[in-house]
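Hey L., structure's done. Input below.
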Amino acid sequence: MIKHILGATVIFLGLSACQSQPQVVSNEQLMGRWHVDVVLDTPTINNSPANLVFAPNGQLTGNNSCNQFSGHYAQQGNLLKLAPSDSTMKACVDSLMTQEADLMKAISLVQQIDFSKGKLNLLSKKGDTLLVLTKQSLPLS
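Output:
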């Protein structure tokens, strides 16, 4: 019996040692323009202009589906805090206005980041995915 328990313990410890740690997202990986693909588990509307732009100086800008916004962000390893502060106030079609409200809600809840399979995932404190982003090759301007 002790051999079985010892054997199971060795196997368990061996498997747990093989688990990979989450990849730390570097500041360089975060920099640039990211298209918003998913907001709160809902894919964005086709051809949606929703995007986030992370500048090297901690400045955050973007388009929340209908309006432009700006603010700041702070990153430390895989911890991320987004703080939009200004926004334009244009009216758009209802579907884009709804997506905009959901996007701004999600942004306010972001506390972690994860980079996997070419996507940047912005996560809640509990690790729930709030936003899924794809890097755009367009210049920042």
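The beta strands are 32-39, 42-43, 51-54, 59-63, 68-76, 79-87, 112-116, 119-123, 129-135. The mean pLDDT is 84.

-- N.
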